[in-house]
Design brief:
Layout (H helix, E strand, L loop, with lengths): L2 H15 L9 E4 L6 H7 L5 E4 L2 E4 L4 E2 L6 E4 L6 E4 L7 E3 L8 E3 L2 E3 L5 E2 L3 E3 L3 E4 L4 E3 L2 E3 L2 E10 L3 E4 L4 E3 L2 E3 L2 E11 L3 E4 L4 E3 L2 E3 L2 E4 L2 E3 L3 E4 L4 E3 L2 E3 L2 E3 L4 E3 L3 E4 L4 E3 L2 E3 L2 E4 L3 E4 L6 E3 L2 E3 L2 E5 L3 E4 L4 E3 L2 E3 L6 E4 L5 E3 L2 E2 L15 E3 L4 E4 L47 E9 L3 E9 L5 E7 L11 E5 L4 E6 L6 E9 L8 E9 L17 E10 L4 E7 L7 E9 L4 E9 L4 E2 L10 E20 L17
Parallel strand pairs: 1-2, 2-5, 3-6, 4-7, 5-8, 6-9, 7-12, 8-13, 9-14, 11-15, 12-16, 13-17, 14-18, 15-19, 16-20, 17-21, 18-22, 19-23, 19-24, 20-25, 21-26, 22-27, 23-28, 24-29, 25-30, 26-31, 27-32, 30-34, 31-35, 32-36, 33-37, 34-38, 35-39, 36-40, 38-41, 39-42, 40-43
Antiparallel strand pairs: 10-11, 44-45, 46-51, 46-58, 47-50, 47-52, 48-49, 48-51, 53-58, 54-57, 54-58, 55-56, 55-58
Length: 625
């Protein structure tokens, strides 16, 4: 065989055994392999991953996927990997027919600014999508602006046109659609025109649509779309300044067909339709198992405003919205059934009774055991979800609840750190969860406060049989003070879940003022509520002031009628946990605990419910590999 023939044979053999580029997925690391993220995207092929290390990446131009089915993700999540538009440019583009295989994951997208289009329009300050349907997950989209002096401002945080993206586990916070003097501002957080986006488990909070004339959709604006929004929180968004109209503080839907399921919508503001505004939308527009609370309209429709729309509301709670829960304009004929509304509303199964939320002040809109919304919904609802907002099963006791959260005596808030769990500033809190049963278990750990800036503390917890996991809650260099809770099917007969909290001091220091606890938190008396379906265990961590002598605290358990049931004395030289202080209470006990001392002290109360399922409180962590 000649050398030429042999060479050709070897080349053919090499080509046969060499994997095709499309089947050999590569990982490109930024800045190790390329200094800039866009350079890594440009070098990637379909199926590749562009992994971005921690840091703040200052952009002069938006990142563009260029139609590639690639994953662009951060190494450690959105808190430590930031894409910053410097108020010069949009941050991310999807404009080349990207599909679900184009994935953006784990970034903070901030300080984006939309360029002016045709001299009169600005669209999409943070992320811009046109004719594209990518996946966007685990991102924080904040402080972006679609802004100009006079004109049309659309989508401060996200703009999507003829697109059907999947947006999951994201926080869209503090973005602006702004036309300062004259014009229209729509979609402070998200603007949607056409398409069929699927939006789930997101927080849309503190966004604003502001214009000198018309402002619509402070949180979300949709026109001509078929949009699904589920398991999400829409809060404290607003439309402001417009002298002609300020509509849809939380969400605005025009000629759209929205399906809204398992959402909590609270604290939004507008002139008309503070929570939700429907205008000429499809008769199939629906709100199912949602909790719409404490939204404020200047004129009408504190909860929901319906215009030229026959929207349907079912299995929902509309409560304490001002000045009314639902306002219909003209010939609109909304259908409201199996829902709880302040003042009531005509329709099958509707009630007008206090839903008895767990803690309205802390925006905990789960149901207490005394709520008349329990087992009051309809199992025949068209879009009845299989799970509630937190991922727990629906229809536990035969009939679905009204509102976003399902309740059972074994599934209510099971572990609460109250009133304050501080992380960062020199120390952290560690959470150990053990599943002692032979069955798998899943649940959610989340901050007790519904503050979007704490969304990174939300943890999905899945445990296999006999599995133990360790979770570290830390604020890094910033001190974060909040409550923390575990929620899931903790009362299942096959579950035996053990939960332990303990402090891990980075520098071996006790908790003092300098570690982030305001001096005003030190009091001589605390009172906190107790609700139990059976026995109660309460753990306490008592902290003295720096250089303060031994602290003695009297704990008194009081029932709902003001009767003193039990009294206990505890003391602390520095700090310590005390558990099993109150036990053997009657079923369905409701009351309070008063903690009082002659000295000012700071106290963290760890309240555990359903101890029969195996809850434990320890100050020393078990061994975890």
């Amino acid at each position: 065989m000649s050398r030429t023939v042999m060479g050709m044979a070897m080349l053919f053999f090499a080509m046969m055994i060499m994997p095709a580029r499309g089947y050999c997925e590569a990982t490109i690391i930024i800045p190790d392999d390329y200094p800039a993220i866009q350079a890594g995207i440009d070098a990637a092929a379909d199926g590749d991953t562009v992994l971005v290390r921690d840091g703040t990446y200052l952009l002069e131009n938006p990142l563009d996927f260029n139609g590639k089915a690639i994953i662009v993700r951060s190494e450690h999540g959105a808190r430590t990997c930031i894409l910053d538009g410097q108020q010069k440019t949009r941050v991310v583009y999807f404009q080349s027919h990207e599909g679900s295989g184009s994935i953006l994951s784990g970034f903070t997208v901030q300080n984006g600014l939309s360029p002016i289009k045709n001299g009169v329009v600005v669209e999409g300050g943070g992320i811009y999508l046109i004719n594209s349907s990518p996946t966007i997950t685990d991102c924080v989209i904040t402080a972006n602006r679609a802004a100009m002096n006079s004109g049309t401002a659309l989508g401060g945080g996200v703009y999507m046109e003829a697109s059907s993206p999947n947006i999951v586990n994201c926080s869209i916070i503090g973005n602006y659609a702004l036309s300062e003097v004259y014009g229209t501002a729509q979609g402070g957080g998200i603007y949607i025109i056409g398409g069929a986006p699927v939006i789930s488990n997101i927080i849309v909070s503190g966004n604003t649509a502001s214009s000198g004339t018309d402002a619509e959709g402070g949180g979300i604006y949709s026109i001509g779309s078929v949009v699904s929004i589920k398991d999400s929180t829409i809060s404290t968004n607003s439309t402001i300044n417009g002298y002609r109209s300020m509509r849809g503080g939380g969400m605005f839907f025009a000629t759209s067909n929205p399906t809204i399921v398992n959402c909590v919508i609270y604290g939004n503001s507008a002139d008309l339709g503070a929570g939700i505004y429907f205008d000429s939308s499809s008769e199939f527009s629906s709100v199912t198992n949602c909790t719409i609370v404490q939204n404020t309209a200047i004129s009408y429709g504190g909860g929901v405003y319906v215009k030229r729309t026959n929207a349907r509301v079912i299995n929902s709670i509309l409560w304490e919205d001002s000045p009314d829960e639902l306002h219909q304009e003209g010939t609109s004929t909304p259908t409201v059934t199996f829902s709880d509304l302040t003042g009531g509303y005509f329709g099958d199964g509707n009630i007008d009774k206090d839903p008895n939320f767990v803690n309205v002040v802390q925006k905990n809109f789960r149901l207490m055991s005394t709520s008349t919304a329990i087992n009051a919904g309809s199992n025949a609802a068209e879009h009845l979800p299989s799970y509630d907002k937190e991922g727990s099963s629906r229809i536990i006791d035969g009939t679905v609840e009204m509102g976003a959260y399902e309740y059972s005596s074994s599934q209510a808030t099971d572990v609460i750190v109250y009133p304050q769990l501080a992380v960062g500033g020199g120390y952290e809190v560690v959470l150990i969860i053990s599943n002692k049963s032979g069955s798998s278990w899943s649940g959610v750990g989340k901050p007790l406060q519904n503050d979007p800036s704490l969304a990174f503390l939300r943890t999905q917890i899945t445990l296999g049989p006999k599995e133990t996991k360790k979770f570290v809650l830390t604020g890094g260099s910033t001190t974060i003070a909040c409550g923390y809770e575990i929620y899931g099917d903790l009362g299942s007969p096959n579950s035996a879940i053990s939960v332990s909290f303990f402090y891990n001091y980075f520098q071996g220091e006790e908790l003092q003022d300098s570690t982030g606890v305001p001096k005003s938190q030190y009091e001589q008396k605390y009172t906190f509520p107790v609700e139990r379906a059976s026995a109660i265990d309460t753990g306490l961590s008592i902290h003295r002031r720096a250089n303060q002598p031994r602290t003695q605290v009297t704990l008194t358990l009081i029932d709902a009628n003001g009767n003193q049931l039990q009294k206990t004395f505890v003391a602390s030289d520095t700090s310590g946990f005390f558990s099993s202080l109150f036990t053997g209470l009657p079923a369905s006990f409701i009351g309070s605990v008063v903690a009082e001392s002659t000295d000012a002290f700071y106290m963290v109360v760890i309240r555990m419910e359903n101890t029969e399922t195996g809850f434990q409180l320890t100050s020393v962590p078990p061994d975890v590999n």
